[in-house]
Structures are given as structure tokens and as C-alpha cells.
Batch of 2 targets.
Target 1
Amino acid sequence: MTIYKGRRTKGLLFVLSGPSGVGKDALLIHFLETCPGVTKCVTATTRDPRPGETAGKDYQFISLDEFKRMIEAGEFLEYAEVHDHLYGTPRKLVEETLESGIDVILKIDVQGGLAVKKLMPEAILVFLAPPSIEELERRLRNRLTESEPEITKRLLDAGSELERIPEYDYLIENGDLADAADRLRCLVMAERSKIER
Ligand code: 5GP
């Protein structure tokens, strides 16, 4: 017998945003290992793979023509231009996963996060912030994946992304990776326990 008939059957949709270099990928690896029942949605991009990235795991790496076709066909839940490349969230994958009762986490930029919230107000927006801009710059330089102009562009973009924090539901500061992953896990657990009204 079910104790509470109003129990949720669909998965929850989480969005994780934060400036480039803040450590979203590392956090997600840590988090996903310790939080069963939630899956990361692989998004599509027109940018080239970085060394070590795998197609279908990190991104669907697609051509500009294919991206345009997917826009025309309405296959994106949202899409945005980020740091001069196009990125989009595949609508069907998100909807089907949620429908099957599995929670979804989207690692997308702030414009994308806010667009998702408009379409799906029940989405839970989480912002991952660096302890300081100096630390963000250090992390961006240490990963050695961007050229100097790209680093400058990403740091500039970081400023405008941080201004949107008040529009998010949760803020996690990524000073220590394990601590940040714990916080994310705790908020996911809390959201799962919420009673729907
Ligand atoms: P990167 O090129 O460093 O992997 O990602 C650049 C930015 O694009 C990150 O902030 C990442 O979260 C964001 N991003 C990745 N996929 C999507 C997407 O489907 N939509 C939007 N709006 N942003 C995305």
C-alpha cells in the first residue's frame, strides 16, 4: 500500500551552471559516483573535442549544419551561443529520462539555465561559484586547454554570469571539490524529499 498517494513518479530536473573553469565537470564526476538515480544529460556542441574528451560522453560533437537542422526540427529544449560556439540540450533525451523516473542534471550555461526555468519552472537551478575571480583565473590557466584570448573571453563572461546568481535557487562555492559534491548531493536529497503541493 502506498503511504502517500501524491508521491512523485517523474524525475527531477537539476541545472548546474557556473563560469568556465570553476570545476563543473570534476564536481559532476564526484557527485554522480555518490548519488544514484541521477544522470547527466549529454548536450550537443559545434565546438571541437578537447584532448581527452569522448564523443557521446562529454558532448555530442556535431557540425554547424546538423546543429541548424536540429534547431529547425525543434529538437533542442534550449540552445545558446557560449564563448563563440553553439551548445544545445536535446529535448527528447531530457523528457524521456524524466518520464522514466530518473533525475537529470544539465551542465549548461546561465542563459540556458534561465531558459529551462522559463519552460519548466519546476527545474532546480544550482550555481557553482569559485571562491574568487583570482582562483578562477588560476584554474583556467592550469587546465591548459584554452588560448590566451579564450581565457580572457571566459573571464569576461564569468563576470556577467556571476551577476545572475540571484536568479538561481542554490549557490555552492567550489573551494573544496569533495565538500561541493557533498553539498550538491544533500540538496538533491532534500529536493527528493519535498512534498508536492
Ligand atoms: P565547454 O566548452 O567549456 O565545455 O562549455 C562551455 C559552456 O557551455 C559551459 O558553461 C557549459 O556548461 C555550457 N554548455 C554546455 N552544454 C550546453 C547546452 O546544451 N546549453 C547551454 N546553454 N550551455 C551549455
Note: The domain at 13-193 is CATH 3.40.50.300 (Rossmann fold).
Target 2
Amino acid sequence: MSIEARQYINGAWVAGKSGSPATRENPSNTTEIVGSYPLSSVEETSAAIEAAQAALAGWKSLAGAARSEILHRAANILDEQKEELARVVAREIGKPIGEARGEVKRGVVLLRYYAGEGLRAMGEVYPASDGKTLLYSNRVPLGVVGVITPWNFPVAIPIWKMAPALIFGNSVVWKPAEPASLTGFALMQILEKAGFPKGVINMVLGRGSEAGQCISSHPLVHGITFTGSNEVGRKVALAAVERGVKFQLEMGGKNPTIVAADADLPKAADLTLSAAMRFAGQKCTATSRVIVEESVLSAFTEMLVEKAKSLKLCDPMADDCYLGPVVNRSQHANILAAVDRSVKSGAWLLTGGKKPGGNLENGYFIEPAVFNHVDPQSELGQKEFFGPVLGIISARDLKQAIAIANEVPFGLSAAIFTRDVSKILHFIKSADAGMIKINGETAGVEPHAPFGGLKQSSSHSREQGRAAIEFFTSIQTIAISPSNEI
Ligand code: NAD
């Protein structure tokens, strides 16, 4: 069944005025059109922003408990419809259905968590120096918040931004990434049923260069939360700085996993591959470099390559699918070209890196690629390919491994496999990463713990859990003094 997505502006479903809609093909079988979506004009995006501004006063004056009730309802409806939504995700972006189900379930947990925030403390009381004044701080919403999201976690990321924005009293204009427009529509249909007042939550679809750009530069938008590439993140930040509004960016990674000489090698190989290859390496926290201590390099490489060869490319709708297609034609071409350049520049391709034939010919599949002899300073050692491509790098010892791990502009996630407490402690102290895993894979985050990167992976605020209050609110400090002595 083909989905005809619409935008949600001021409590109404809007088909889109400008030109014909864009279509979305199924990345695992491009002969199937999954649906179509409108490309929002600047006028439509502006109308959504104006609707959010008009709804703001009423929404922020509601009691936290009333906003909480609506978020709880949204969580329950999402929970009831989780299978349908997961199937849209799998068809539209090629995420294996098991992972898509997990992501939707995470969305339910996030909504419940933030529903709870409506009933928690919003400030602190301080002792005033005169002993009489009531001196306290209160958290207030930013106003209209622009939410610009990527395609790779099309349910969890929008929810982990919108749920805190809404519970703290902001109104929202959300723009999903184009390759996930149909999922955006399906999620918005669920959220609509929760009963948000008209204009409190709006969704526009279409191009980043129009709808996205309009959100980041519009004078009525008082805060922008963005997840996506570094290139676009910089533009969003510049537009926000120009207007002096708060912004938050979560961006790319080139995440390292270190395998120390004493590691449990089979476990390290399994989890490194899982982080590198699941969802075809299209996670910001995916492992793309594995740095191995020299003494176990050949044993680890052999094990890893053997396991990589046994991974089967599969239809994302299959319950046990591990490695599906990449998201679209341009990503498919970009990744294959990057693999080719890496071979030409001297890295050794040990397995994969090709488009398969047979019954997968009609999809954007790439066989999982593992390289060794990777120069840490090469494109393969430095750039985010966002595909099923892993580079093995050799290191003399742990010190050199950590130096290599840190020698990239990114700092999102980093992992080490070792049984040695001294190595663990040294790694934690030295790794330039916002998310650190010991004997675990770089990918995967808990919904209630702070999430974000260091260096160029982030604008250094944090998302999820209690951390979200820092971005989505401003602090007012209030002093109430008696007018006369009693
Ligand atoms: P992208 O930067 O191409 O797009 C992200 C969003 O920005 C989309 O909604 C897009 O339409 C919009 N956009 C594009 N141009 C714009 C402009 N000029 N002004 C405003 N908005 C604009 O990223 P993507 O391809 O959707 O996602 C992949 C990237 O996201 C990868 O780099 C990945 O590492 C990163 N990512 C980071 C995290 C994290 O939390 N750190 C999580 C997921 C993905």
C-alpha cells in the first residue's frame, strides 16, 4: 500500500502547494514505491512557525500535569501502533525490522520518561542574604522550537527532541529528513491522536535547503535542535548565532573500538561487527575503525573477516535480518566510490565492498567491507562513510592505540575490549569521546542517560534524560521581598 504523506500545520493535514510531490522508493527493492510526500514551500513552513507561536501562550500556561497527561496518551497510542510504525520504518529506510521495532519501543519509553518530567521540580530555592526575601530559580520554555532531524533514527530522535521540548512548555515545528518523510507522517498521525492543542506541534516535509533553512533563520523560532551531518549542522548554527537564539547540534562520528592484547577476541569481533555492520553502518555511533594491539592483530583480523564473510545481506522485513540495504541511491554510490578510493590509496580490502547481484540486485545493498593496512590519516581513517565499511588499524601498544583513536575531528563514541582494569581506567581518562563503552559496542544508547559527543560531533549540550532540561528551558531567578515588616 502506497502512503500519501501530508504535512501537519496548525492542527490540519496539508497536502502541500508547491509543485508535484516527491516519491520514496523502497531501498531494498527499488521497484516498489513506498509513498509520496509534499515538498514544503517557505510560505507553508512560515505558516507552521506562526501557528506554533500563536499556540505558545496557551500551551506554556498549562500545568505540567496536563502536558504530562497528553504525553502519556501519546506513549500509549504509540505502544498500540508500534508494529505498523516499525514496518513503515523498515520499508522506507531499510532498517531491519527487529531494530525498527526496538527503536519504536524506545520512543514509547522516551515519551513516558518525559511525561514524568511534567511533575518534577523546575527550579531551586536559595538562601537570600537579607534572610527575608524568597530567592528561587524557575525553568521557563524557550518559545517556538525548531526540530530538524536525520533519517537514520526517524522515530527515536524526533521523540527525544520533541518530548522534552513539549513537556517543558515549548511549541514545536518539526522537519524530518527527506528519506524518512513517510515515517515522519506516520509518527505525526500517532502524536496527533494524543490531543495536543492546535498549533502546539507542527510538521513540515521537504528539502533542508528550503523548509530546514526557513526554520533555522525564522525570527519567530527561539531555539533549534538539530541532528545530522557536520556540514548542515554548521549552517544551522550560523543561522542561529546570527539571530542570537539557542541551538543544539548532534552530528557525525568516526568511532573507534580498541582491541587490547588481553581482550576476549571472539566477543570483541562479534560486537565490533555488530557496531560496524548492523543497519549497514548507518548509525552516528557505528564503529568505523578498529584499532588492534599488534600482538593479536593477525588472530583478531582472521576471526573478524571470517565472521564478516558469514553475514548475509537480507530483506529488512525478515525477523532475523542483520544487514539490509543503505538508504538511497546517492548514499549507495557515495559509499561504493569511497571504497574504491580507499583501495586505490593503498588500503587492503579483505572482504566485501561490492554491490551483490541475484535477488538483491534491485536494492541498495553493499556487502560488508573490511579493510586492513589502513593509514589513520587517510580518508578511510578520518571521514565518516556512513555505510557497512570497517577499517582495521594496527597499534604498537595501548598508548598508540588511544592516540590514533583520538586523531580525528570527531568525538562521539569510543569502545575498548580488555580485561585489564588499569587499561580501562587509562582509556576512560584519555578517550576523546562523549560516550564510552568498556567491553561493549560503540553503538547503542540508553534512553534515560545523557547522550552526545565531544569535539566536532556536537555543540556540547546533551540530549535525553534529565540533561534535556538544560537545552529546552532557560533559567529565571526570582527575588520576592516583603513590602513592609509584619
Ligand atoms: P543531513 O545533515 O543531510 O540532514 C539532517 C537534517 O537537516 C535533515 O532534516 C535535512 O533535511 C536538514 N537540512 C539539510 N540542509 C539544511 C539546511 N541548509 N538548513 C537546515 N536544515 C537542513 O543528515 P542525514 O543524512 O539526515 O543524517 C546522517 C548524519 O546524521 C550523519 O552524519 C550522522 O552521523 C548524523 N547523526 C548524528 C547523530 C547524533 O546524535 N550525533 C544521530 C544520528 C545521525
Note: The chain has a mean pLDDT of 97.
